TrEMBL record:
Source organism: Fraxinus pennsylvanica
Lineage: Eukaryota, Viridiplantae, Streptophyta, Embryophyta, Tracheophyta
Pathway noted in the entry: Protein modification; protein ubiquitination
Name of the protein: BTB domain-containing protein
Length: 108
């Protein structure tokens, strides 16, 4: 799957992409094509990560928090690249208690 995104929102939040884009030697403004085949969580996680970088509020749930945390770690989305970055957002003490949510979903 391909995502057509502007690099600046992505660069503001991700250490790995800053490195990869910098190594691509694409300074003339042309399209930069990056392959992230090893991204934990795959395209679903990347879509949520991209939304986060664009400032879209994403809902952390028991169904997506693990893949988001792994993708955030892989992409180096730590506090060095922005306060309240995705690694911090997925910390155990920042997320709500999902026991009732999990019970609801398992009973349906």
């Amino acid at each position: 799957m391909s995502f057509h995104l502007h690099k600046f929102p992505l660069l503001s939040r991700r250490g790995l992409l800053e490195k990869l884009i910098g190594e691509s030697h694409n300074t003339d403004g042309s399209v930069c094509d990056l392959q992230l085949d090893r991204l934990p969580g795959g395209t679903k996680a990347f879509e949520l990560v991209a939304k986060f970088c664009y400032g879209v509020k994403i809902e952390l749930t028991s169904m997506n928090v693990v893949s988001l945390r792994c993708a955030a770690e892989y992409l180096q989305m730590n506090e060095e690249y922005g306060e309240g970055n995705l690694i911090t957002q997925t910390e155990a003490d920042k997320i709500k208690d999902w026991s009732s949510e999990t019970m609801r979903k398992s009973s349906t």
